[in-house]
Amino acid sequence: MDKTALLVTPKARLGTWFGPGTSNGQIWFSQSVPQGPTTVNVSLTGLNSLAGGYHVHVLPITSGSTHPCSDANILGHFNPLNWKVTDSPGPGIGSLDQYEVGDIGGKFGILTGRNDYQAVFLDTNLPLMGPYSIVRRSVVVHYTNGSRYNVCSVSTNTLFCCCCFYNSGDTCGIFAIVESIVH
């Protein structure tokens, strides 16, 4: 009997930065297997020691918005499990399940005092697929006072698949598919 296995490797990245801040850079998100941990690769520049926390927010930026950082545009922090923020330990010292799903700065440490920042994290509670996915939401870098510094939408333009076909002799033929997706 022939068998087929399909492996989807989700990947996402930030779009264009908007807002009053001068920061630039990129945050890439990837999972080597669906429902696996998400690798978060952060490379931010031009923070000028003005940034504080950074979080995923509920909605992506509305195209053509004159106020992309406004609460009306992107809403608040992405917190689908309704985690009580006052129960979270300080930034970077708790376990991943002790913070909102989208609280990247809380989980791994905030950006206070930094001009540039590069880091790679592994997050078991930041999915790229399913009902709690961060794709088609936004990431906000906040000022140290908590107001919004810059915002970007989280998007994906490719879906990476690897198919493995097994025949009755357990021989495997593998090929990869890269499909463009517009969101």
UniProtKB/TrEMBL annotation:
Superkingdom of this protein's organism: Eukaryota
Molecular-function GO terms, alphabetical: metal ion binding
Residue ranges constituting the Superoxide dismutase copper/zinc binding domain according to the UniProt record: 24-143
Q: Which Pfam families match?
A: Sod_Cu
Q: Which InterPro entries match?
A: Cu-only_SOD, SOD-like_Cu/Zn_dom_sf, SOD_Cu_Zn_dom
Please cite one Gene Ontology biological process associated with this protein. Answer: superoxide metabolic process
Q: Which Gene3D superfamilies match?
A: Superoxide dismutase, copper/zinc binding domain
Q: What is this protein identified as?
A: Superoxide dismutase copper/zinc binding domain-containing protein
Lineage from the top down? Eukaryota, Metazoa, Chordata, Craniata, Vertebrata
